[in-house]
């Protein structure tokens, strides 16, 4: 339920409906048979209750609120103290909503009862047994509000909805009787930037809460609240858990839960906290029966059914009880009634809406891509005031770009990273700290004006804001480094040095809005496209680290953790030269490279924070002697800040998806993926590559080209390669038959090739090759000058059609661009020979010149010409894209 007149919560219909339906997933398939329902755990002592056994409502426990404020939700009742609206009879409290006399301020009357200053509690088990009223427009609730708004007005000081329902038994979208109940908390910033999270629940076996009595409860302890129906735990919510880096700076959330924003009394500034606040103060109980309002009137059968509000449809409460946990009354912990799955995000645990903390500037220069062909969920495109919705469209020159329009309503357009405007569930408000880029960085974008404003005198403007608009700078587009005005129909690049924007008054530490628009009120009729929107420094300024390449880095010596061996450098083939060699004996161990002084390193860990956007850890590995068990998994492990954080992953989860073999293979791990898994990238000091612990005896393997860098940047120490297939298909790619209905397989070939991909074509025309998962694309744009697509092919059985031509085809961006060539157009210039492995190479530059967008490659195909391949059997191995 929502706030009363005294709580000052007012929401428009649209806001309330979208908010409530965003509470959480609707649970329609709970399996209570898997849980023993035996009631609450031991250790609870009842400290307050009302059994409603008397003849009247106990005014030492309850106060009636009397007002016609509509509950802050445009509800249609006046709350009264009239016995017709609330009374005790037959051991039950009855709250009845009735039609009001003609001429009344509101069309209905009802009751809202509170325990404020008569029953105020922090932590405990709050329980009610009740039968809920039904009907379109009905909205009963059992909930808690803070007794004192310690953290500020609603919802900064919190709200806990133990149970509420709307429109029970009214038809839902499928025509079935509405039966959901909801458990929700409200918190965060002041309305309208408030947040909430929760979960819906359906009783088992088709039961409806309006047909019989059920028990509704929460258990509330320090940092956690759990929701129950008939003692089944269906939802858990928790405080947020903040992750810190080696500098004790908040850099992320291990769990996204609740938060609050309040004014720091010492500074007078707003402060966001991720602790137990606001759910660590006294709250009081509320029982009420609302009629209509923003939420119920907008769903189910919509509106209010007047026939539902009468004496025969009461909100009946058998009892309300409050229990204290004897184990630790100060925290409420120690009496938890839990079940398996109560703390699992796949089951009961609800993700909250806490923003990811932004650390204070650490002086490390990072780049930000707001949009470059792919939407950034943290920075949605935005029309401030004109009512349009910016959209991504295809442009012949740039591919995917954003289109903005301006109509009669004055507006400004651009990109924004404030929570109130982020709708993507993967997005979070992420103000950008550009202060370390002050001297070298710039805000830049590419723009094409499709249609100029109808006002020929309109001036194009650029505006950036910081820290919720606390500072801003607005300048004509001609103030850019290029100094030119837009020309209709032409893509043009505009660059604004950050030092100039700072001189104009912009605080660079928390940029949260960037806008490009015709001057206010002069833009009617304008249509324009934006791409390559970045705040960045030149790539040459990015850091990189070479751990091993042709010789040992004395700051990062080779290392055997526990086996007592001494890794050595040896000479390998012409491509690799001097490499690291590791040998494992009977003693279990892990091996790699270490920076810590105790092991001979420099003790100066590598800060890869600036490389999170596109940076990787990469190395080449070859197995000289395998382990005794060929199935032994191989792992990569990376540690930071003396093992304060670490991430260990199977090597087959690399970008290439490869498994170590007797051939040199590249393994690439994105830094952002490692950071998301919990690694503090600011103090990397150990890199390890090894067979699983205790399973490596006899293994001898070599490692080379070990580096941390951003591929394609000026400071990059090497090339960027994705291995589509080498013994197995790359992670997030598959071996694929487009149209023939077959399933390509992985088969053993000769010693030199090991496991390969095999394709068979039948009578159904088809094309075959490698296919990326939905949303997965390989960006080879930085490799165009020197990169290639290369693969080995062996035709086992040729097509029955002897005139068939073998073709190569590559697609990008969900087939937005594609190039198809005969295999004889490869660098080698040969046709396949049956029974022979042959290499075919196609330079990326050649493919780009033929029209391929190399930034989003998602399909690579090799096949006999369409309709001529019947009977063909062929194999592919060592397929790569990039610069080897």
From TrEMBL:
Listed CDD domains: GH16_laminarinase_like (cd08023)
Xref: Gene3D superfamilies: 2.60.120.200, Galactose-binding lectin
Entries under Pfam families matching the protein: Glyco_hydro_16 (PF00722)
Residues of the GH16 domain: 32-328
Superkingdom, natural source: Bacteria
SUPFAM superfamilies, per the entry: Concanavalin A-like lectins/glucanases, Galactose-binding domain-like
Family affiliation: Belongs to the glycosyl hydrolase 16 family.
Name of the featured protein: Family 16 glycosylhydrolase
């Amino acid at each position: 339920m929502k706030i009363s007149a005294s709580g000052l919560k007012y929401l428009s219909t649209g806001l309330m409906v979208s908010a409530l339906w965003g509470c959480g997933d609707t649970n329609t398939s709970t399996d209570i048979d898997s849980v023993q329902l035996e009631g609450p755990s031991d250790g609870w002592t009842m400290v307050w209750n009302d059994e409603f056994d008397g003849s009247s409502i106990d005014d030492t426990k309850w106060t009636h609120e009397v007002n016609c404020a509509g509950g802050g939700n445009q509800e249609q009742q006046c709350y009264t103290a009239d016995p017709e609206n609330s009374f005790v009879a037959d051991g039950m409290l009855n709250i009845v909503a009735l039609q009001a006399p003609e001429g009344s301020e509101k069309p209905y009357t009802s009751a809202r009862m509170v325990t404020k200053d008569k029953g105020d509690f922090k932590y405990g088990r709050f329980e009610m047994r009740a039968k809920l009223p039904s009907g379109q427009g009905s909205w009963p609730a059992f909930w808690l509000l803070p007794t004192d708004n310690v953290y500020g007005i609603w919802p900064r000081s919190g709200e806990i909805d133990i149970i509420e329902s709307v429109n029970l038994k009214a038809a839902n979208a499928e025509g079935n009787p509405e039966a959901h109940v909801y458990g929700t908390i409200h918190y965060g910033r002041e309305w309208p930037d408030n947040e909430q999270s929760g979960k819906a629940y359906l009783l088992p076996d088709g039961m409806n809460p309006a047909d019989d009595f059920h028990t509704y409860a929460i258990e509330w302890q320090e940092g956690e609240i759990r929701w129950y129906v008939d003692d089944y735990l269906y939802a858990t919510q928790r405080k947020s858990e903040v992750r810190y880096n080696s500098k004790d700076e908040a850099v992320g959330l291990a769990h996204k839960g609740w938060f609050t924003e309040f004014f720091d009394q010492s500074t007078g500034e707003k402060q966001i906290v991720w602790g137990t606040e606001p759910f660590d103060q006294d709250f009081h109980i509320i029982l009420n029966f609302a009629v209509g309002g923003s939420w119920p009137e907008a769903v189910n059968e919509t509106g209010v059914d007047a026939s539902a509000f009468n004496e025969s449809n009461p909100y009946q409460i058998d009892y309300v009880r409050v229990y204290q946990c004897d184990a630790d009354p100060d925290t409420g912990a120690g009496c938890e009634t839990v079940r398996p799955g109560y703390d699992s995000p796949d089951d009961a645990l609800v993700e909250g809406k806490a923003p990811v903390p932004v650390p204070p500037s650490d002086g490390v220069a990072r780049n930000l891509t707001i949009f470059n062909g792919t939407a950034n969920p943290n920075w949605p495109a935005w029309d401030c005031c004109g009512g349009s919705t910016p959209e991504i469209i295809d442009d012949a020159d740039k591919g995917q770009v954003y289109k903005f329009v301006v109509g009669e309503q004055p507006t400004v357009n651009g990109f924004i990273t404030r929570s109130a405007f982020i709708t993507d569930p993967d997005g979070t408000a992420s103000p950008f700290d550009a202060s370390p880029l002050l001297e070298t960085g710039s805000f830049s974008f590419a723009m094409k004006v499709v249609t100029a404003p109808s006002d020929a005198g309109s001036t194009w403007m650029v505006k950036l804001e910081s820290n919720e608009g606390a500072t801003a700078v607005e300048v004509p587009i001609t103030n850019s480094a290029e100094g030119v005005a837009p020309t209709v129909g032409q893509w043009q690049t505009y660059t604004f040095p950050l030092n100039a924007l700072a001189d104009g008054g912009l605080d660079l530490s928390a940029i949260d809005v960037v806008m490009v628009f015709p001057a206010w009120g002069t833009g009617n009729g304008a249509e324009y496209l934006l791409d390559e929107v970045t705040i960045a420094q030149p790539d040459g300024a990015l850091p990189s680290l070479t751990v091993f390449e042709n010789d040992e880095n004395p700051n990062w010596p080779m290392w055997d953790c526990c086996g007592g061996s001494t890794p050595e450098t040896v000479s390998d083939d012409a491509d690799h030269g001097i490499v690291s060699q590791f040998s494992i004996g009977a003693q279990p161990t892990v091996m790699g490279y270490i920076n810590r002084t105790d092991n001979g390193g420099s003790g100066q860990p590598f800060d890869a924070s600036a490389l999170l956007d596109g940076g990787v850890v990469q190395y080449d590995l070859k197995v000289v002697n395998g382990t005794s068990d060929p199935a032994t998994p191989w792992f990569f492990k990376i540690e930071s800040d003396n093992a304060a954080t670490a991430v260990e992953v199977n090597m087959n989860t690399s970008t290439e998806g490869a498994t170590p073999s007797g051939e040199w293979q590249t393994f690439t791990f994105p830094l952002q993926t490692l950071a998301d898994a919990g690694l503090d990238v600011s103090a990397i000091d150990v890199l390890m590559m090894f067979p699983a612990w205790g399973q490596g005896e006899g293994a001898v393997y070599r490692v080379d080209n070990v580096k941390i860098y951003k591929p394609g940047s000026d400071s990059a120490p090497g090339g960027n390669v994705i291995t589509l297939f080498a013994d197995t298909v790359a992670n997030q790619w598959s071996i694929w038959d487009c149209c023939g209905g077959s399933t390509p397989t992985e088969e053993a070939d000769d010693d030199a090739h090991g496991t390969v991909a095999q394709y068979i074509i039948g009578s159904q025309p088809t094309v075959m090759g490698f296919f990326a998962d939905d949303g997965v694309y390989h960006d080879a744009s930085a490799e165009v000058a020197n990169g290639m697509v290369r693969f080995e092919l062996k035709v086992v059985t040729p097509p029955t059609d002897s005139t068939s031509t073998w073709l190569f085809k590559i697609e990008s961006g969900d087939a937005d661009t594609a190039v198809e060539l005969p295999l004889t157009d490869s660098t080698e210039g040969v046709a396949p020979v049956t029974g022979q492995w042959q290499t075919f190479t196609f330079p990326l530059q050649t493919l780009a010149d033929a029209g391929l967008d190399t930034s989003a490659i998602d399909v690579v195909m090799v096949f006999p010409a369409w309709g001529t391949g019947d009977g063909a059997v062929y194999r592919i191995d060592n397929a790569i894209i990039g610069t080897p």
